[in-house]
């Protein structure tokens, strides 16, 4: 299913500037965030195609992991922002928790996750967290 971020009631998109999409914080919003990101990348690729096919999937995986972590650890509304950089895409996820993410030990035999934050770091060129009085922004810079 293809979605144009300009048609999403909760999104604004100003050409090749910044995508801004707001979500209420429900589980289904993980998929909504991924679809908004995919629509943004489709528009971006029309004039600036990715330098490698896997970059598209990597960005979508990072958006999905950040949104899923927000739903699990920072209940409430969140906002996805994306913008092109000179050599990639800057993804920001703003949520309502002031607690920075921390890596957890990945134990596949016990389940329970623990791999998402590691994936975000592995796929991104740079990751940073900015804590605000009302939440935090997680920034990920990925190649395009």
Key features?
alpha+beta; six-stranded antiparallel β-sheet; disordered N terminus
Instruction: Write the H/E string, N to C.
Output: EEHHEEHEE
Q: What is the strand tally?
A: 6
The number of helical runs is: 3
Task: Tell me, briefly, the overall form.
Answer: globular
Helix content: 25-40%
Q: Extract low-pLDDT stretches.
A: 1-9
Judged by helices, strands and strand pairing, the structural class is: alpha+beta
In spatial order, strands of the major sheet run 1-2-3-4-6-5
What's the N-to-C terminus distance? 22 Å
Mean pLDDT: 88
Radius of gyration: 15 Å
The major sheet is characterized as:
6 strands, antiparallel
Compact summary:
With 144 residues, the chain is α+β, with helices and mostly antiparallel strands.
């Amino acid at each position: 299913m293809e979605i144009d971020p300009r048609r999403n009631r909760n999104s604004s998109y100003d050409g090749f500037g910044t995508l801004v999409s707001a979500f209420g914080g429900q589980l289904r919003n993980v998929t909504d965030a991924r679809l908004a990101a995919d629509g943004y990348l489709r528009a971006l690729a029309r004039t600036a195609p990715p330098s490698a096919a896997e970059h598209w999937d990597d960005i979508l995986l990072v958006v999905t992991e950040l949104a899923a972590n927000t739903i699990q650890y920072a209940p409430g509304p969140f906002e996805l922002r994306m913008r092109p950089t000179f050599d990639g895409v800057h993804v920001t996820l703003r949520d309502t928790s002031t607690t920075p993410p921390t890596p957890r030990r990945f134990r596949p035999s016990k389940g329970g996750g623990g791999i998402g934050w590691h994936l975000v770091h592995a796929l991104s060129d740079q990751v940073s967290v900015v804590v605000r009085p009302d939440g935090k922004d997680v920034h990920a810079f990925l190649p395009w």
